[in-house]
Each structure stands twice: as C-alpha cells, then as structure tokens.
TrEMBL record:
Enzyme class: transferase
Family matches, as NCBIfam families: sensory_box (TIGR00229)
Keyword terms of this UniProt record: ATP-binding, Kinase, Nucleotide-binding, Phosphoprotein, Transferase
Domain HAMP, chain residue ranges per copy: 90-137
Gene Ontology CC, one term: membrane
Enzyme Commission number(s) from the entry: 2.7.13.3
Record-level GO BP terms: regulation of DNA-templated transcription; signal transduction
Catalytic activity: ATP + protein L-histidine = ADP + protein N-phospho-L-histidine
Record-given protein name: histidine kinase
Coiled coil: none
Amino acid sequence: MIIPKKNNLPSNAEDEAPESDLKQALNLISSVIQTRGNIPDILPGTQEEQILLRSILMTLKSSQYHLLEISDGKLDSNIELRGTFGGALKHLQSNLRHLTWKTQAIAKGDFSQKIDFLHDFSVAFNSMVQELEDAKKTLLLKNNEIQEVNRSLFISTEQYKSLILTSPISICVINNETVLLANPAFLKLLHISDEKQVVSNSFIQYIHPDKIDHFLEQMSLYGEHEVNWNHFEEEMICENGEVINTEFVVTDIIFENKPSILFFIYDITTRKKHELQILNSLQEKEILLKEVYHRVKNNLQIIWSLLSIQSRQVKDETVKVYFIECQNRIKSLALLHENLYRTDNLRDINYGQYLTQITTNLVQNYCYNSKNILLEIEAFDTTIPLSHAVPCSLIVNEMVTNSLKYAFNETGKGTIRILFQYDHANKIYFLDYRDSGPGFPDEIIPHQTKSLGIQLIYGLTKQLKGTVFQENDNGVHYIIKFPFNPDQDEI
C-alpha cells in the first residue's frame, strides 16, 4: 500500500488519515475474533504497522484456534505460540489435562485425587471429591447391609424350605393362588407322584368344586381381618379323584422375597367319620331318651289313673284326700317328663313354663275357680336340670297344695306368688313362695310338724343341699336356696 505524502493531502486530511487506519485495524481485529475470518492480504497502515498488525492477527487467530481445541476437549494439541499469551494457553491446557486425568480417576473410584491449581475452583473440586468419597463409603456400608440382609433372607428361605420339606405335616406355599412349594407330605396326601404337577400351577384345582366359593371366602376373610392365623375346614380332591376332609391352618410368610401364604393341611377324614358316627349315635340316644321320658310319663299317668279309680271306692274322706295328694305328686312328675319329651333339650327344663302348668293343674284338681285364684309366677326363662327339677317340683307341689287346702278354703279366693331365678355369679337357685292366706297358726312349728307335705319340703331341700326360711308375712312365706350341683342324683 502507498502512503501519500503529507504535503499532497489537504490540510484537514492530515489529522484524519491515522485515525482512519487505526479504525480499520481495530475493525479488522474484531472481525477476525468474532467471525474467525481469514487475514486479508492488504492491511491498513505503514509497512511496519502492517507487519505488526499481521503478527497480532496471526497470534489472535492461532490463540482462537487453540482455545477452540481446548473447549472441544482436545488437550493434546501442540501450542506453538510463544510469549506470555502462549505460555498462558499452555498452562491452561496443562491444568485442564491434569483435571481431566483426575476426573477420570475419580470416575473409576479413586477418590484420593486432589488438585492444587485453578485456585477457587480447586477448593470446590476437592470438596466435591471429598463428598463423593463420603458418599462412596456410605454406599459401601449400605451395600454391605443389603448383602447381609439378602444373605439372612437366603438362609431363612433355605431353613423354611428345609423345615417344610422334612415336615410330616402337609405344607404348601402359595402366592396369588399359584403354588410355590409343596412338601412330600402334601404330595402324599393328594396321591400326587411328581412335584412338577403342583408347583407353578393353581392351588384351586385341588379344592372340591362345590367348596371353591367357601375356600375363597375364607381367604378373603383372612385378608380383611389381618389376623396372623386362620382355621377352617375344606374338602379337597386327590389326584385319583378321592374326596378327603381337611383342616387348614393359614399364616403369612415371605418366601423367595415374595409375600406368600403358608398352608398347614391336616387330613381329618377319619375324624369326620367318627364325628358323624358319634352324632348319629347321639341322635339315636336322644330318640331313646325321649322315648324313655314318654314312657315314664305314660306309666305315671297310668298310676295316676289307677289311684283315681281306687279313690272312688274309698268312703273315708281323710283317706280320699291322701289319694288326691298322691295323685297330684304323680301328676307333677308326669308333667315334668312330658316337658322333657317335648323339648330338644333333654337335660334342662324351662322352669317358668313348667311352674305355670303345675300350679294351674293343682288349682283345677282342687276344684277352685281359676278366676278366683291369682297366680303370679316369675321365672325369667330360668332353666334347671332334671336332677334338680324333680325334688324342686315336689317342693312346689307341696307348697301350692297346702295353700289351696288351708289358705283359701274359707273364701275360695287368694293369690299365690312364685319367684324362681338362678344367680349365675354364685351358682345358686332361689325360690321365693308366698300366699295371701292367714299363715301358719302360732302353735304350729313347721319344721317340727308331722305333716307329710311339710316334711317333704324340708327333706327334699336337704337333699338339694339347700336351706329353708319360713315366716308368716301376710300369709305363708318360704325362701328356699339351693346350689347348682352337677353331681346331683335324680330321685
């Protein structure tokens, strides 16, 4: 480029020429930096300025190239730049190369790597490495714990398997109705020759078709109630088609890392047959016992009829009364056996119902108008065994008979109140009897009288191991207490 002489330029151009060359040079530098453009052959300025500018541009272009190489991760390229700028690039390249090597070592698990360059960055980097090392130690510790748990689970599972496979009890492990494990005892129970026929197949196939709904219902109840154990009976089908009765005991286990259900299965076919035999035998005995009660009632009725016929031939009124009293005692026992015959409970009697029957019958036998004799009976559905009912019934019969003979004979009207109940806490029966008559005469001491009826009341109470309390309280008043005695003999 030819630079015009100063004296050939206008006066105002002498000041603008250097500024124009400098501006062009700066624009050119900016263009090379921003666009990575080529260096033009013609540069502004003097020859010396052009040489300097070209050197600057080539340095910038080379630096730019090496910076791009470094930014792309190419840290092995040879930097030929000299001087401070070239040294800085080489130093940066060397630091980044070392940083890369250390990062790669850390990635392979070597957390001993540290850096002492790049100043603040080295602090953050070394802190990060320390955190990674701590995290590695934590992960190793957790991993060891997990391995120990897995080892324990494996040992536990193997122990489960060993116990299950050697147990004489039929055992099966299922998950979602699929069999995971069945021991030899289970295979023997269902006459299965090969375990492969069972494992990985549905357990439902061994349940009797008519009982599948029941089985699923039991399993559903087991899941809903969240209980640890469940018992139920089920019918199963053997491989040969035989139907057997079984009892299931169900519990939860973790088997092969799966939540599973463990079945203990017992063959109760023989027991069920024996239960059926016992039930049939019991039904037969109940029928026989009812027949006995029925015949006893009939025999007592025959005796009552014979006494009734015989009493018609008796002229002595005193003797005839004895006959009637004897008939009433027999009638009370006949009613007792009739109630036993007609009920499903062959041991205990609903005593409230019986008391109503016996008192009503006595009122009718003594020819009273039932409207004139008020019977108030409270028994609260109390039941009493036959061994206690027989003596107790004779006691009540004597009390009512005495009231009808002596308390109401003048007016023909009166009230009889009977309260009968059982104290469950103390296991004691309580009989409270009273009438609205005049009571015993003052000169009579009841327990010392020779009256057969009074002697029966005290004697039968003693047989029941009970006590008698008697007083005149606007009429005769008895309180009798006797304990429940399972060994009480029938009279």
